[in-house]
Write a structure and sequence with these properties.
26% of the residues lie in helices and 25% in strands. Strands 8, 9, 10, 11, 12, 13, 18, 21 and 24 form a 9-stranded mixed sheet that branches. It has an 8-stranded mixed sheet with strand order 20-19-17-16-15-14-22-23, with helices on one face.
Amino acid sequence: METDPPGEQHRLRLRNLRREDYAEVRALMEVVYPDIGGAWSRPVVERLVEDFPEGQLCIEDNGRVVACALTVRVDYNRFSNPHRYDDLIGERRILHAPEGDALYGLDVFVHPEYRDFRLGRRLYDARKELCYELNLRGILAGGRIVGYGEHADELSPEAYIDRVRRKELHDPILSFQLSNDFDVKRLMRGYIPEDRKSRGYATLLEWDNLYYEPAETPLVEAPKTQVRVGVVQWQMRPIDSLEGLLSQIEFFVDALSDYQSDFILFPEFFTAPLMGLSDRTLPPTESVRFLATFTSRIVEAVSRLAVTYNVNVVAGSMPQLEDDVLYNVAYFCGRDGAVAEQYKLHITPNEAEYWMISGGDGLRLIETDAGRIGVLICYDVEFPELPRLLAEQGMDILFVPFWTDTKNGFLRVQRCAQARAIENECYVVISGSVGNLPQVDNLDLQYAQSAVYSPSDFAFPHDAIISETTPNTEQLLLVDLDLEKLQELRAEGSVRNGRDRRRDLFTLTWTGRAPGPEAVSGSRERAATDVPSGGTGGAVRGRVLG
């Protein structure tokens, strides 16, 4: 292709490619790709234009083609897995799926004399606009790593990609793709075997369309993006029976369900008033075991309320006795009848010494009809590794039932919860109890200010506090949460904690014993999923009630 050197009088125009452009496209490809075969044949280019005209883009300068982007539609599930370039295009066929749910970038090439004009970025932006217009999941692309050949003797391809990602090395193709918001999903071997510069390797890159809406999903089954959360700041008060406590629980479930809440959160050990029902004075270790005798009946009753009132209930936490070992356990009761447990993993010195409570050893991400959630009890939120493991599995909301007796204890929970919201780009909901129980040893003081916290960025409140209760007053809190804001934050926020982690410097790995899930039946099995560990290939498991 002959062209005058770029001068002052440019007339750049972005348009769709036409069949009659082939001669200029051929000349351009010969200039750009002398090392991997040069230009494609006329039938291949013309077939692309015929099958998917809106996906074939070019930029002309004064009527002369100087840059191109060639694209097809594909099935995302097939091409988000390892493949070769020949699976997409060859002399005798071109893989184009008219009903495909993703774009696949076959090629972008710019005449060398125009590479300071950022024409590649214009073509990438035009592709993204097309993805929006067609309502597709995103854009996939196989990217050559043309600088790797110069470092192959000293670096593995994985190490080379990491160094390019950290901007310690520059790769003409990969660096450009990363700067255009594409993420490396995997390394592919033998993508273009004759590509000596890349030694046959390529990256599978992906750009996600945040506004993609699956057209075939029935409205009733579509995942919720606007979620309403109800928080109970629970008043500890003497009661005279289990039925009296259940009646109080139902009052709050009924009240918050009237406002179409998707979730209700109760505090840690909110069933403690039942300890006052013993017919004799018990030492602390026996008193909490007495309380544990009510747990199964309360969980069954709360699960029934969740179904009856059509609301997901995080039923605070309660003591649970197993093989003469006492645990502090939070219960998720789904409105579909699912029930899942989350054991408290870190036990405070007071719990361990006064009540002889032991820590659990499992962590679960809970799939719900209103987002992915995690539950951590009080002290556990002060250990950032646990929320990070949940966040890596896509947690949207972290629920933290807590019990603190003094303001300084509350502030530990509060400030750690706020930090977890920021560093994990999620919402955090905390719920505590107030009042006192003079007849119950070790539960005579309460301090709480329940709240809902957000990440800290422009789309959220300026202080990252969505709402909070009046301290030390029985109160209900209702908050609407927008899950789409989290997706936008993770992809386009002022800072992106999840994406910017230096995984080359540190990793997070679960090493504890992980008991497998108990036998379950019906919908209950779908309540919770194992959280994979950070890189060992194992699993962090929890328990599911049958």
